[in-house]
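2024-03-11 09:14:02 INFO receiving multi-entity request
2024-03-11 09:14:02 INFO entity count = two
2024-03-11 09:14:03 INFO echoing inputs for audit
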Amino acid sequence: MPSMTESIVAAAASRIGKRVLHLDRNDYYGGMWASFTFEALQKWLDECRNGKTNDFVKTSSPLVQDTEKSITIGNQFSTVFNIEEKWFIPEKLPSVGNLLSAKNTQTEDSPKESKDGLTETEATLKQNDKLWCQAKIKTMGRKFNLDLAPKLLFSRGTLVELLISSNISRYAEFRCVNRILTWQSNKLETVPCSRADVFATKNVGLIEKRQLMQLLTLCVEYKPESGEFKGFEDKTLKQYLESKSLTENLMHYVLYAIAMSNDTTPCMVGVERTQRFLSSLGRYGNTPFLWPMYGTGELPQCFCRLCAVFGGVYHLKRAADSVIVANNECKAILSDGSRLDCDHLVMGVADAPPEFLGSVPKAGLSRGIFIIDRSISTTDKESLTLLQFPIKGKEPITVIEAGPSTHVCPPGLYLLHMTTKQIDNAVNDLKPAVDALLHSEYADGTTIRINTDTQSTQTSKEGDSSASSGESNILNESLKPQILYALYFNCPETSEYDLSQNVPSNVYLCSGPDLAVDYEFAVKQAKSIFSKMYPDSEFLPRAPDPEELSLEVDEAAGPPFQSSEEPKEE
Amino acid sequence: MHNRLKVRTTEAQKAAADREKEKKLQLYRNTINDVFERRSRKEYDVLALKSSEGLLRSNPDIVTIWNYRKEILLKLKPSEEIINDELYLTEKCLQVNPKSYSAWYHRNWLLDNVDPSPDWNKELQLCTKYLKLDERNFHCWDYRQIVASKCQEPIENELKFTMEMIESNFSNYSAWHYRSKLFSAAGKDEECTKISELSLVESAAFTDPSDQSAWIYQRWLIGKLEPIKIIYKVSQIKNTVYLILNRNLPNNYKIIGLGETIWEQFDSKVWYTKLDNVNINKIQIIDEFNQVIDDASLDNVQKDIFNLNISEQLQLVLNGQLDSLHQLLELEPESKWALLTYVLLLYTLKPKSYFENCLKNIKLLKELDTKRKNYYHDLESRYKIEYWIANNNNKNMDDINLKGYGLTAFYHMHMFLFSINIDLSDNDLSHSNLNHLKYLIMCKKLSLRNCKLANLNNFPALNNLESLDLRDNQIQDISCTELTKCKSLKTIIIDNKQIALDKILQGINQSINIKIM
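2024-03-11 09:21:47 INFO inference complete, emitting structure
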């Protein structure tokens, strides 16, 4: 199944001239790293709910020799569980007549439209344009790219460097995450993380600005011999920050947003994370992160494309049925009644036979995908946001919000992804962030709640400055995005387990999506698998640009394909 | 094996690149010759325009070719299409070299001189777009200033734009500079502006104290302050009335108070007039609106001559700045810009024991920023001289004693115009310009003993000077002949090591008595 790690390994092997066959039982690329249209997501959910039986379970086959053992492949869909899907809007919009009666109770709120010279029905229809119903979402379903494993790239992280050095970057487009938010004192705040942010922010005082810059500089320039963190080696980052007598505000920004840590993160781990965060700043934008256009499912496909350019063969909708093993070595796989011999077998944990997995746990990630009607924090421009929602004593909930300009959802909507470590189940694990950020009551489509006009909500926000705090709280509540659709599920997280323990010597298991916000783990794992397979070969050397290629023509082998622009052989 | 992808070897690539380069060079030479021939044949047509296009696109800095195009365009009465093509060409050229003076100029010239209906608003949008991509290209900032004035863009909008640019990266001299230009042009409510601008600078200073751009802007904001007073002293010697100012008299100011008297200037800080029958009441300085800026009566020395004109509101703000700088220095005790600004502000506001504080911090600056040591020495000299003048105002100014002040430069020497006995000994004047002594026209006795002087270049003609002490310097050369300009000079005191001077001076003017001590 060509998910992230497997795709990187496949591209790397193909690039050095190995013959690569890539089988996927699905009709899409990416496995647990895929991005789906709304319709495809529904299909995937159906398959997950129903499970898929392996039709080709045959214990004995003429293709398997006596000395060999055939081991049946695992079932990917059985690894997704606790699926909870919920709509918060009606199937269809209420008719105009219903709306009219509903409107009479709220004329106060829509005087502008009447003044515009529209009849009430016209106004209602206009209002209707801004309302959402299930049918409307479904008709726009192809405009969604819903990620199973939403992740960001550190601008100077290993994946970006790999995409550049291997020349795969031309297959993908990215957008900069343009703000880092945090949740503090029951509200969202923008974290100043670059020099420009620190200069411009009004959230911190002058002294704080200097302290923050000093601390960040200290972390960037940190070298083990400097002695700055002496005595904190076995303490937490929080204890270190406390020793610097930072204000509570700064502590929060640094600890939860910049160091991407929590109360228990060891000091040196936090410093390392801060360094990584800061070293990626300013390369492409004022935050350290990139987000792939059209969703994260694009990335495995980029590597698949390179693999195919160098001769890799792809076969979707075809599964491996069993692995043939002799003398602790994989000889071949059986697929669709054929025996396919191989030197190496790379497979995802989801496909792995239970025998290979050993004690790998099934619990891991709690995921939430939300279609919402506006940004969690509106500004005049569309934002691409990362928020590490702190949970006391636990891993934070990673929240990524992407809007229509990244082609993951239709105009007027936003996608909100939440990921955290599974403790209970996805619904309960994500509840704190959902409650804090989103409006999750059912919206019948007639109330004023659903007004996706960002500008008008902005104006009312500003105009409300004189209102009493009680009223503004109510208003804030109504400014929260409305959930239109929510999907929760759990899936395994295997990044912390040694997957090479129970496998034959030439079989390599790849983890599914890990908890971290970035791709560091997948790249590291791919590199390590590749170096075990081909210890002396270069990992993804730069692929030539099309204009650097020429076709090597064997004159004796018949008339070559000739085009007018074909470069002559040197 | 056939039809397999093969990567071209690097040798092959190099050879191909070399061939390509040679071909390009030949083409370049041929084209440039062709264009020059056309110009000599006075070909002013579309074809001639086309002929040089490729050339400029590969090298946008051939001014001669741009000039040829200007000739063609002026003769041709070009259509809208040609003008647009020409604009497009400059655009392409700026993509090749974004800092091409000639391409930027040509674009401006074209819109100014050829285009009958130039779209300056579009240019402004282009500038905005461009500066978002290349925020510190001063060519584009300059061009923007021209464009904004052409399309009469409201100053507020331009201020807003510079603010956006500064917020995305405040290390941008051009943006700060443009703000200063805009505020100068707007000329409105300066204090209010200063207050909000200073808080911006403060924010930049605390974010990154080592970035100069905001500090320099701050210098502009504070440096606009001028002393309250302008007249230092009005004195009469024989039948000449001298008016001594503390700064150059601005061009639009006038001196009044002695009827129709015409004031002559020694320089723009020292004015005089000869009167037979003097009866001065008051001398006034007025501005262009006849507002009295300052006034003084004869021999009445003004106090607080160096105190600056700061409104109460601004005083509060600057005090706030001083406090926050103090805090910044606690966090960053070695930040040069913070220290220097602290010194400047202390001196501006003159709080209690400011002088000692300034000197202490200047000493620190000399240690931290050794490359600019001399600058700090000179600053210290100025402060010391001003402090001396301010504190000796009421005393008899006949005798001036600045012995051992560590002075490295002369400041305000014109305020010693009437002094007779001046002691500048034990200072380091090796790098100063002795011409500043030209104001000491009443001085009879001057000591420059132990001032590390190596020569007497530019020593002015001091007509009343009788005695000059030059001991403990290293003057050996012919520059001492400058002294012969001082017609009353009777005694020069030198030391044993400068015995060579004796001979040189004796050779020129035997009436001078050289004492060797």
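2024-03-11 09:21:48 INFO post-check: The mean pLDDT of chain B is 89.
2024-03-11 09:21:48 INFO post-check: Chain B has four domains: 11-189, 190-225+308-365, 231-301, 382-516.
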